[in-house]
Amino acid sequence: MSFVSVAFLLLFAGSYLGSKLCKTKEQKHIVLLIASYIFYAYWDARFLLLLVLQTYISYYLAKKIAQAETKQQSKRFMLTGVVIALAVLCFFKYFNFFVDSFAHIFGVTNLTLLKIVLPIGISFYTFHSLSYLIDVYRGRLKACERFINLALYISFFPQLVAGPIVRARDFLPQLDQDRPMNRENLVEGLQIFLFGLIKKVVIADRLAVCVDAVFAAPGSYSGLSLFLAVVAYSIQIYCDFSGYSDMAIGTAKTFGYDLCKNFDMPYISKNPTELWQRWHISLSSWLRDYLYIPLGGNRKGKARTKINLMLTMLLGGLWHGANWQMVFWGALHGGALVVHKTFREQSDRSGIHVQNPLLKRVVSVVSVIATYLFTCLCWVFFRAQSFTDAITILTRIVTGAAGIQYYYVFTFLFAGVIAIATTIGMVENHGHGYYPVLDLSKFWNKVILILAVFITLMFFYAGDTAFIYFQF
Which single residue of 45, 79, 157, 307 could bond 36 by disulfide (Cβ 3.0 to 4.6 Å)? Predict the structure, then answer.
């Protein structure tokens, strides 16, 4: 069920009204859990059982961890849950990838791949289950006494299929509180939802027209047209994914719950490290806390730190998709993080730092441009249909190859919109994004909101509205 559908509108209205009529928070949790399971089953009811089963396994093993008499026993239960969750994820998402890679490496030609349907959102709810079990084991969270609380955390429909990846220790305590479903939360939540909707159906979906056409036949377009298509894709994927996050955060807010921030103006980052502090924040922080730090983080020397960075980004790339392009995409980002960390170590050791204010500003601007161009280079491998296409795109851009001239007006228009919004964020919120929630007690704010709704209805793209991150 997409956020951009009549079915979702009906589900939201029904679950909101049902929740408002509840007299206790426990009744509200039941209504929201039923709504979440309906939301998930709408795509494919067969996999609802898998979601419920994985939730129960996490619930059961977390209680066993809490009841264990020794650290060794609790660790055994935690590892059992982690292995089961990862085994399920690997089977559905990576089985064919590993079999196909094995066949290519060893020249096996008679292996038959299984026709495995990937359960939507499995990467996200698996990460929820893992973080819950690990946090209970670490003593940072108490095991849920009520199954319904854990079930609602893992399957809460706003963030079920594409995030943000919410931590159990951030969400479960909210279920113990009587979270208000008042007018203020409704108004704020709907405005945040509208903000994300505009990003998705007005900006991302219109840019997809250009991106899909150019990336389908990269050898036919000029170098400049390809470069503009790559820029268009950088805006498309940002508005598509951050738009979904905004809609999830806004929907949760109407029910009185707060979800974590997932994007913070990533394209003004000055280096790769900052980029991953601003892009898909819930994933990058999850990988840091549950993969990078357990691997040793930066506690075991400089060389080991860089190996850990690279391993984390390689697995982060593989999380995004079961193919070698995604692994390479992760390797590019991992390599960039290693280079940046090495550069910082050398500059700190030598004491070379820019002191002149004007030169410092110039360096900052150049750093932002360089980081953005590197990010676009990585997006080529993320979006291209094959390695060959990716190399073709980059080669034709660098050489300025001749071909079809395709200058999509919306690329320039929306690049300008993003630049203006970024400038406002830098001025009004010290370089950080924020939601422009309006005080509707004022007349002109009501006019602005009505105009925003009108613009959305006038300019939304009526074609394919599938979210890019649904495939992950």
Answer: 157
